[in-house]
Write a structure and sequence with these properties.
heterodimer; A: D-amino Acid Aminotransferase, Chain A, domain 1; 3 domains; six-stranded antiparallel sheet; 13 helices; 37% helix; B: 294 residues; Rossmann fold; seven-stranded mixed sheet; 14 strands
Chain lengths: 396, 294
């Protein structure tokens, strides 16, 4: 699960990382009030940042500076309500604009291949790290935290020196360790600070330079959310398709696509394969849908409802290879779902594996169209979709 | 011969008294797998599977009393990492963890402990393995198999069943089929399994079933190009038409170094001498084209 910058900063702050103060505003008036308070505190300008879960906010015009409260209100008014990559901006973050001396990049990520937490740092911060990886791969410094003992101080120091942060060694070590702590405390897959920056700040003692986290991106492990009820609350219902929310609550993996053939499959690999074969047969899949292992009749009914909600769907392909999932349970779910469905769409059902014979009996009695092989099922579904008089996207 | 499991497998089922544990233990036993013990804390002294299998409170007791050498875990996600570590501590050699939904970071120290002790973990979130005619551990339906000489390794569950069924229907049997699991952090990789197959005299051809994401298929292909040149090889990669993944942020994309797409995997496998199928049903014909006679 992705969370917004402001929430990610909250998680970093809770682990003692240096994150400059911020406010979240839902309206231009709230942004104005936040800006007034920040400017009264001595800041010369404020930065106003769209809070959306997609990258490229800056390029899309979702990050702007303001020098007065009036300007902040106007800028917030222009950002709130704008659409960035299909997402409407409903919140902005307001903070003092930093006087940046130098920007860095630092992240902690689960490295699947190494089966360890990987820290990646670069002195080329504030830009897209993928681009740095392509242009100057040598500019990215990597260290794996010990899988049993965690990130050691010497590792964090090594990382800091190689990033050119020797002048801020203690702070850099603190940030590196803090990233790993944030990851472990919240079961995050990724904790990314870009930019991590040395900023100039004016205090009563004069001007100082310190290392701070100016942006934050955190991705959480969905499998671990049940043990972090507080984090589940950070899910933004405004940014989630209601269908996605229902799928998630039912334990179904669901991704809506642009085609016309609805797919219901058990297992992610087989679901992708089913989509591939629909395409190969000349059709376009309307969705990826994995009902998971051991699905019962009610889950099948929910999956069917999700597929049918999409008006583009003109045929449905059900492909179940029973292992943990029992074919007869799925067949019962399909029969129940068809009795309740509001829209008549041709359906091709293939159920093999555990309890397939019982499933076949049930489907035959209920007069479902069935298929034996996967290729055959895909071809039948594409043909059924065409006979409904809609373009399946073949030849496009 | 076979890999990972065979006639000398003495299986203990962790979580045998649970709904899934019991259902699949029964199927494993019916296949002929020697289930010597079950383990559920607090149910020691009872029996499972109609009185045929003694249940123990601890893995130490199960191993001591029955000489179990392999375990299969059906414990819920919250307790599964602990179940793996208990199996390791009791001296189990080969551990299959079927459980899905284990938080990925929980597995980081667990796979390291497994590695340091020299045990082998398959999974988590895997369907297990079958050596047809000898033993079946996990949840792969028995009906898909046929005895033979093709080694099968896959990241998926049900897609594996599909591919193996297609082979069986075409008269091509398997030495061992292994599902390594689809979780981010798993104990045994494609490469590990290819190395085992390379050392198995009864495995005379290979089928690899991969998915988009990560670079494990590419890594395995590179090794196979060098060490498995002379045996027939076929592969299937799921997700050729899948849209760009939503899975990881920037840092994840960098780790995989630009690989991870279906095109990259297909290219790596073809370069290593694998015939890559457009549908799982084409695998038998491709094996024959590659020279497999079995």
């Amino acid at each position: 699960m992705k969370i917004q910058e402001a929430d990610a900063k909250g998680l970093l702050l809770a682990q003692g990382l240096p994150v400059p103060d911020w406010s979240v505003a839902h309206s231009p008036a709230e942004a104005r009030a936040a800006a007034e308070s920040i400017l009264a505190g001595g800041a010369e300008r404020v930065v106003i940042k769209a809070q959306v879960l997609v990258g490229g906010r800056g390029k899309a015009g979702g990050v702007k500076l303001a020098g007065t409260a009036d300007e902040a209100e106007a800028v917030a008014g222009s950002i709130l309500g704008m659409t960035i990559k299909g997402i409407t901006v409903r919140k902005v973050l307001v903070a003092a604009a930093a006087d940046i001396v130098k920007e860095y990049y630092l992240s902690a990520v689960l490295d699947r291949a190494a089966r360890r937490i990987l820290l990646m740092g670069s002195a080329e911060g504030g830009v897209e790290i993928e681009q740095v990886a392509v242009d100057h791969p040598e500019a990215i410094i990597t260290i794996h935290a010990d899988p049993l003992l965690g990130l050691q101080d010497w590792q964090a120091r090594d990382l800091a020196f190689r990033m050119g942060l020797g002048g801020h060694l203690k702070a850099a070590v603190g940030v590196a360790r803090g990233l790993v702590r944030t990851m472990l405390a919240n079961d995050a897959d990724l904790v990314e600070i870009n930019p991590l920056a040395i900023v100039r700040e004016t205090t009563t003692d004069g001007t100082i330079e310190r290392l701070v986290c100016l942006d934050a991106k955190v991705t959480l492990d969905d499998s671990a959310l049940p043990r972090h009820p507080g984090l589940e609350a950070l899910r933004d219902p405004d940014e989630e398709d209601p269908a996605d929310a229902r799928a998630r609550e039912a334990g179904i993996s669901f991704i809506r696509l642009d085609g016309t053939i609805g797919c219901m499959v058990n297992g992610a690999g087989l679901a992708m394969t089913t989509m591939d074969l629909v395409k190969r047969a000349g059709g376009e899949p309307a969705n990826f849908l994995d009902i998971g292992g051991g699905a019962k009749a009610d889950k099948v009914a929910t999956a069917m409802a999700l597929i049918l909600e999409d008006p583009k769907v003109s045929a449905i392909l059900v492909n179940i290879f029973g292992g943990i999932t029992r074919g007869d349970e799925v067949a019962r779910g399909l029969i129940e779902a068809r009795a309740r469905q509001t829209r008549s769409v041709p359906m091709v059902v293939r159920i093999v594996g555990t309890n397939a014979a019982e499933a076949a009996d049930l489907l035959r009695a209920a007069k479902f169209e069935t298929a034996t092989s996967l290729d055959d099922a895909a071809a039948k579904a594409v043909a059924a979709s065409r006979s409904m008089g809609t373009s399946t996207g073949a030849g496009r | 011969m076979s890999i990972l499991i065979g006639r000398d497998t003495r299986l203990v089922v962790q979580g045998i008294t649970g709904r899934e544990g019991e259902f699949h233990a029964r199927a494993m036993q019916a296949y002929g797998t020697s289930i010597v013990a079950g383990m559920t804390p607090g149910k020691g002294g009872q029996t499972a599977l109609d009185g045929t299998v003694p249940v123990f409170d601890t893995m130490q007791a199960a191993v001591r009393e029955t000489g179990a050498n392999t375990s299969c875990i059906f414990v819920p996600a919250g307790g599964a990492p602990d179940a793996i570590l208990e199996a390791v501590a009791a001296g189990i050699d080969t551990i299959f963890c079927i459980t899905e939904g284990i938080p990925a970071l929980d597995m980081v120290p667990v796979v390291e402990v497994v590695r340091l002790t020299g045990a082998r973990l398959i999974g988590p979130n895997c369907p297990g393995a079958t050596s047809p005619g000898q033993a079946k551990v996990g949840i792969i339906p028995a009906s898909v198999h046929r005895e033979g000489n093709v080694g099968v390794v896959s990241r998926s569950g049900t897609l594996t069943y599909e591919a193996v069924q297609a082979m069986t229907d075409a008269g091509i049997g398997q030495s061992t089929c292994v599902g390594i699991g689809g979780d981010p952090v798993i104990g045994t990789t494609f490469l590990d399994v290819l190395k085992l197959f390379a050392a198995d005299p009864d495995t005379r051809a290979l089928v690899l079933i991969g998915e988009i994401g990560g670079a494990a298929e590419e890594e395995a292909a590179a090794w196979a190009a060098e060490h498995l040149r002379d045996i027939p090889k076929a592969a299937f990669i799921a997700g050729r038409t899948a849209p760009e993944g939503k899975r990881m942020g920037h840092a994840g994309a960098i780790i995989s170094g630009g690989s991870g797409t279906a095109a990259s995997k297909v290219a790596a496998l073809e370069a290593a001498g694998f015939r890559v199928a457009g549908s799982p049903t084409e695998l038998p014909a491709l094996l024959r084209e590659a020279g497999y006679r079995g």
